[in-house]
Amino acid sequence: MARFLLKRLGFAILVVFCVQTAVFLITHALGNPARLLLPLSSTNAQVAAFSHAQGFDRPLIVQFFSTIAGAAHGDFGTSFWQQLPAVNLVVGRLPATGELVFFAMLVAIAGSVPLGILAAVKRDSVWDKLAVTVSLLGISMPAFWLGELLILIVAVQLGLTPTSGYGGPQYFVLPVITLAALPLGRLTQIVRSAMLDELGQQYVLVGRSLGLSTRSLIFQHALKNAAIPIVTLMGWELGRLIAGFTILVEVVFNWPGAGLLAVQAIQHHDIPLIEADVTIVATLIVALNLLLDVIYAALDPRVASLGSRRRARRKLQAIDGVPA
Amino acid sequence: MAVTTPLEIPSFPERPSFRRLPSMRGMLRGLAGNRFAMVASLFLLLLAVAAIFAPWVAPHDPNELHIIDRLTPPAWSAGGSTTYLLGTDELGRDILSRIIWGARTSVTIGLAVVAFSVVLGTTTGLLAGYLGGWVDTLLMRIVDIQFSFPALLISLAVVLVLGASATSVIIALCIDGWLVYCRLTRGMVMTLKHTTFIEAARVTGNTSRRVMIGHALPNILSPLITLATLEFARVVLAESTISFLGLGVQAPTVSWGLMLNNGEDYLTVAWWLITFPGLALTLTVLSANVVASWLRVVADPLQRAGSR
Amino acid sequence: MTAAAPALSPEPTPARAAAETILDVSGLSTSFETRAGRVHAVQDVTFSVAPGEIVGLVGESGSGKTVTSLSLLRLLPATARTTGRVVFEGRDVMKLRGEQLRQLRGGRIAMVFQDPMTSLDPVFTVGSQMVGALRAHQRIPRAEALERSASLLEQVGIPDVATRLSQYPHELSGGMRQRVLIAMALSNDPGLLIADEPTTALDVTIQAQILRLLKDINQRTGMAIILVTHDLGVIAGLCDRVFVMYGGRLVESAPAHDLFHGPEHPYTAGLLDSVVRLDQDRNRRLSVIDGSPPVLIDPEPCCPFNPRCPYAVERCREAVPALTPRAPGHDAACFRTEAAHEPLR
Q: How far apart are CA C21 and CA C23, in angstroms?
């Protein structure tokens, strides 16, 4: 178990390193960052002077190591745009993103688990059709459009909530619903398929032959087995929210989180801030994956090897061809 | 009381005579079966027609300004005009025409990214599966790492560096788009590698390379088409996302994401600016998803036999 | 050869007395709706089991033996339609509802399945699954249930029970898991055990052990057993009476000895001919039954075996032969042997 976690930890560090490298290569190797940062009208001399001042004229490898070394100490340099340490800016925005993600996942789980189970148990019923509809809509509606529609209908036409911004509970309603839609759709689908799959297993038939109650078979046995792919997917969905989808919701609702900051950083061509934001977000996702491995080991007694989650991933794909 | 007997050997080879019922059935078949998939396919066809024949089917030039008619509501609501069926935007451009031209952008970028990713992904996947060893390990590590990548942020950074344009969007989306195909192909090759006919080919001294490619590719075709359909939906969505953030396709090229971006400022006065492009986008993604699910059931003989 | 105390056995001689039955099945038919049509998996099956008796239900893949056994406890999925009467200890199983049915399952009738590898829930310990099976029927505290589980495991010959109880299924071998499943089936002292191919997935040596265990339990507790199998060897060693199924129908029913020495149905005869016997010339070619089992989708009203039967005549293609008595306790469904009345071997 300890070895297994140690291996996962090593992999996690490797991932963060790779993300850093990718961002570095994109920002430094694809073009001269000074050109991005300075106005288009800048002369070559101005660019050269700025490059020198920022150290962009050093060999790439030197720049790379100084960036990595800085990042390892939590130092990503000073934001060009805000003139503050980039790390502080990102960390300051994390709580708002965290709140949004937390409540969205809560809504998604609270909605999808009962609906998915109900759909699997009462196949082809109204519940099943509702589950299919919810998951299809959740998957297909772009978050920014759903957000705009909600603003249009709930905030503008009905006047029930503020249109955007950050504040009390009323400010949370629309962003949380918008962000929850996609994970709700995908989780409903996976809960339904995973439960259907488990309910068809031999041990359920054996349990029925032994006179176990339907309730115990569904909620104890099938659900605990289905929990393995479900929890895995929950982790992925959470990771996906952090990795990308909050960005759109934060932009649409002008939510002061790390996602909005990332877009602002990109719009301001603020390389240190971009690097800090992407690296910190990637670290969070990796930490989350690590946490998942622990939960996973607690759920499945067969977990003892590195391959266990890969096995679950394969199982997930077998169930529903979940695209990555 | 001997239990064993002179009759020793089972009399017939026994297969389970009663298999457990198929547990998985296409999510969509429950809802409306093939009729649903047919409507979705028709919509995608319509989209293709709009994309190909945009200059002929669009009633107006998408960038033609009719300042006098700016913010005209759709034809059926008060103040609407049949000249502009779905209304006009803040500069008096015809929404319907822009949606039709936007389809062209979405389809072009979607197909370009999918085509490039399929070629790169299948090639590397075949290589990884066939060669095994460190090539395989390296590729699979990349695939694993990609799971933890903040993909949208990376795409945005790429577009930023390359400069906002349709080409940049295509490049940015290709960077991680090929990995899924790589994983799929590699998985299929690994499975095939252990089938008897490949082993037989190897034992009899046939070039296994030829057998692998000859057999792996046809076997992988149907899951590949399904995946490509799903990926098309994802790419269309990603393109509009990047354009919505203002970092992707730039005017005068028309994009649904860009339309949604512009429309946001007029949310309180003109609902049609965001409703129709968003609807077009949602229906496209929905249709591709539906068709992919249907393909998955139809193309997989096991599932087809399994689901009644 | 066993350690069973005969005094414990309420029925020392397996009852030939047909008057007393624990299970009475008459006119049992089960069909499934499929896209290809209605599959008649079991048609008009009638048989009975006496208390303490071990009967064999034998047939090849798709003969309907497993569907028959699942129908007895109504364990088939909702797509199945079952008709007929199944009377167990005086109660009609077909009329039981919800809670009564649940009480019957694992209570008075228990079942053991073919594949021990997938029959246990992988994420619960053996102990907690056994406790669950006990407490589904008896209001006893968890600790007591655990003690009972331990003694049940000992009864089925599992050493080191304390360890086993805390282990997960994947830590046990196939034979061990089947023993656990048998122990779970026994946990509420059933009057009837339906064992559906209990040894098929196991190694030959383990097979013999499991069969011996079943026989022991039968001797010790007087529990009746329906042994569903395709293996005539298993039948010969264990069963008092045998029911042969073919194409969803019962084609022959006889005391085990009579069946092996004088089969009255051409299918049974073919079956016996295809078995390797140690007491025969080793150079003899094994005979096979040509052709393949019938498709059970909307079957014609004819003898299901006629396309493969060397004795088939016109009549066999026009009507379904009924089971008719050939000797005391020996019935067969065949027009030819009914008329000729001469043994097939």
A: 6
